[in-house]
Specification:
Blueprint: H1 2-14, H2 16-34, H3 38-57, H4 64-79, H5 84-105, E1 114-117, E2 121-126, H6 140-148, E3 152-156, E4 178-183, H7 186-191, H8 196-208, E5 213-217, H9 226-239, E6 242-244, H10 246-254, H11 267-278, E7 281-284
Parallel strand pairs: 1-7, 2-3, 2-4, 4-5, 5-6
């Protein structure tokens, strides 16, 4: 039962349920228009409605207007009485909208490996998720540095929010050849602390001011927390920051024994996250 609950939670946190909801709604609507029996049509209408709830609760940070068009098209397809030809047009529009939303979101589920240089220092700015292993070198930042073969400097403290971690951005020497990974926002998300968008804008601005390259872990989002993901994606585009898809972190939380309390990583979880993140980077030999 615990495994099933964890698996279901990860489907929402990773955003996978968004694609399932789109597909299930499209199938239900198509079959709805093929059936003549009222009882069957009623059940298919309910199935389409439940699928729409999956899309809504997936917290996929697409523009509100895109979600709005899709829901209006779904309602029109199910509720409006039209001649067969017009019903076909409405159905085609809905299916095209569903495919369009899936195509819009799908590229954000993948990352082109982020290039690092062997002679640069890799800084990790994080919260308690970047800490807490039983052995001093067992945290995922240290394990990631070992896997990549580059030095890593960790800046983290328990309970860190984007606002309380702003000073870490100033600890990185401006003349140092460095790249930065940002793993923050979970405490903002859980506690509703601070002005997330404003503080993240400030942090990314400070990090990018001297031309450093920055990569950020996208937050796995619980239902109806779209605004956090929208802010992350918007600010990543503004500052030229690469996003590691939220499915990477969500997938680690799904692994058996990966957490100690559902929120903090166990030693096994640190190893799993380091391995998952290592696949998001490539290391080029130094020019010298």
């Amino acid at each position: 039962m615990d495994f099933l609950a964890t698996w279901l939670a990860v489907q929402f946190l990773s955003g996978r349920v968004f694609f399932f909801g789109l597909l299930a709604a499209a199938v239900a609507v198509c079959v709805f228009h093929l059936m003549a029996r009222p009882r069957v049509r009623s059940w298919l209408g309910i199935a389409a409605g439940l699928s729409a709830l999956l899309v809504a609760f997936s917290a996929t940070p697409l523009p509100l207007w895109a979600h709005g068009f899709w829901f209006v098209a779904l309602a029109a397809t199910l509720l409006l009485r039209r001649p067969p030809r017009r019903r076909g047009i409405t159905l085609a529009v809905f299916c095209l909208l569903s495919a369009g939303l899936a195509a819009w979101e799908l590229p954000r589920q993948f990352i082109r490996p982020f290039p690092l240089a062997a002679d640069e220092t890799f800084h990790v700015i994080g919260d308690s998720l970047s800490m807490g292993a039983d052995t001093p070198d067992g945290d995922w930042p240290n394990l990631l540095g070992g896997a990549l073969g580059i030095p890593i400097v960790r800046h983290a403290h328990a309970g860190a929010t984007v606002g309380t971690a702003l000073s870490y951005a100033d600890e990185i020497p401006e003349d140092q050849k460095a790249a930065v990974l940002v793993e923050l926002g979970g405490n903002n998300l859980l506690g509703g602390k601070g002005d997330f968008a404003r503080e993240l804008d400030e942090m990314l601005g400070r990090l990018r001011r001297s031309g450093r390259r920055v990569v950020m872990v996208e937050l796995p989002l619980p239902p109806l927390y779209n605004a956090y993901g929208t802010a992350q994606r918007r600010l990543a585009r503004r500052h030229g920051v690469t996003l590691i898809p939220k499915r990477v972190l969500a997938g680690v939380f799904a692994a058996p024994g990966a957490t100690t309390d559902g929120l903090h990583l166990s030693d096994e979880g640190h190893r799993a996250l380091a391995a998952a993140l290592a696949e998001c980077f490539t290391v080029a030999p130094s020019a010298s």
